[in-house]
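Thread: Modeling a multi-component assembly for a lab meeting

Hi all, long-time lurker, first post. My supervisor asked me to bring a structural picture of a complex we are working on to next week's group meeting, and I have zero experience with this. I have the sequence lines for every component (701 residues in total). Could someone generate the structure of the whole assembly? Inputs are pasted exactly as I received them:
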Amino acid sequence: MYQYDSIDRTLVNERVAQFRDQTQRFLRGELSEDEFRPLRLRNGLYIQKHAPMLRVAIPYGLLSSKQLRMLAHIARTYDRDFGHFTTRQNIQYNWPKLEQVPDILADLASVEMHAIQTSGNCIRNTTSDHLAGVAADEVCDPRPWCELIRQWSTFHPEFTYLPRKFKIAVSAAARDRAAVAVHDIGLHIERSASGEISFRVLVGGGLGRQPILGREIRSGVQPADLLAYLEAILRVYNRYGRRDNIHKARIKILVKALGATEFARQVDAEYEANRAFAPRVEAAEIARLQAFFRTQPYAALKDIDVLAGADAPFAAWYRHNTVAHRQSGYRAVFVSLKKPGVAPGDMTSAQMEGVAALAERFSFGEVRVTHDQNLVLADVPQHELRTVHAELSALGLATPNIGTINDMICCPGLDFCGLANATSIPVAAQINERFDDLDYLYDLGQIQIKMSGCMNACGHHHVGHIGILGVDKHGEEWYQITLGGSATNDASLGEVIGPSVAKANVANTIARILDVYVEQRQSAEESFLQTVRRLGIEPFKERVYA
Amino acid sequence: MRSIIRDRAVVADAWRYAGEAGEGPEVLSLDAFLASAAGASSAAGTAVILQPTDEPEKLIPYLAQLALVVIDFPKVGEGRGFSQAQLLRQRCGYRGELRARGALKRDQLFFLARCGFDSFDLDPTEDLAASLAAFSTFTAAYQRAVDGALPLQSR
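Re: Modeling a multi-component assembly
Sure thing. I ran the full set together rather than chain by chain. Output:
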């Protein structure tokens, strides 16, 4: 993985010193709340319901064991012994004290981590495929390009006060595991017949109040021109994006207002006009970054019959929580952060340390964070899987539910968040309790439930196969259900089935929807999403409101 | 007389913004400047202030006349001026004094300077002498900008 050089280290340390000074000036009254807000936000610090919330960047979701141990240390020392992994491959702490945040940032800097630009109206953490570097279907490892973008976007002098937040995701695989279409900029890396890579650029995707899928504005962007092209997009947005209304300030609104064709024309014009001043990605620089992401030093192993003589719990875990690896004798292992009764994405310090140790012993000391709020040990030898399963089970991290309806994406909701209208975590618990029969879950196959406690859509409900949105009705929590969303290659926005349902009825409503699916699917192979797309929402609607 | 930061020192400002009382030449709005510039193209040593929606490219024919361009940041979080400054310095080739004015504190100085500003009229509550240290908040940069700092691709 990428290792800081003296420049990276210096910058992160200087950022800690800067934020320490800003915090002290705020506490002394030399910075007003209005002045301090954008400064603390760009260090990931929100003021929440109960306490500040600190969001720490995990660039493109990659962590070393050492870094994961530091995240555990921070949770134990400054928080209530747990952290929450988010849908954008970050981790959030819900109970730090403002005065201690500079110390937390200093601890993070000691392991080459930071909270730079994890919030605020600036370019956020660049996200990517959690199987990058091991996926069989990728054209190249996207992470060197993510690191290039991370560095370019860090403290970019021109783009630190954008109209609104700005998120970039990169995918280099046939199957998009990075939800590229719902980002402000989504990049698909493609490889031509002659072996050259180039970038296909989507702009203006996003969820929130006005969900919309990104539009392709250009393909064939050459590696040398990538940053120049990104700068052209950002400059057009920074100059012409709306700033009069926070709800209309995302780039998606500008793209929609101009039309994708006109927006692309303006970007191309800016790109051409700026050629003399724009950054150029030197081949030597990308080669330097690529050297950090070489293939792991795999042992020469043969595939083995892992399930021979296996007991049922191991077999279920193997089938649902591990996936094929492109290296023979290896498997990628999902660490489920979706144990029933635990808030999705939450992890205790002890669990973090346990996974850090497993990564060191069995997966080259690296851990990935997924967009679905789980972790991945990407390079586990097949003959170690039983040990890994046993140890993950002991840690409470082996619930065999990856890809099932209990593998929900969920925001912190009203329990923690100052923006939320309704709780998410108790509803997730209600669904977990209602669907506790694993055989039933396995029969249902791949179904993604995504839940947000308000229309800001941190839980990506629009792109869940089943989406759940918490709304406030006269002080009561109600939940609006959507069907048919998807965040991958066939990205689509879910359709609302009808009036929202009371909190106590969410799981029952889901049960009715699933009944329709089980009755109507044409075969065991037809997925829930396929059935919804074939039938439309009517049959589901009829059953729910019968 | 107002104090500003220019060339990394606290100095007295010789200029007067439109509507301000007192001595000194007036800084014109873009419309007023363009109206006067069209009539008297030889009026050297004038000053103009750009609002966030003003297009800096409109100044290209008149760069030789301009002694000062002010870019206004009317609200906390305003960011268009950073692009206006880079455009003025790079594409337009403006070499004269370029001032950031408005809801700005020392926390923005480093980035403003990187975008080509060399003078700063900060929020009246800011301590200008104490602010000078902010120019060296960071000692390296990943991006190429007006200040010519080491871009990452030259590592």
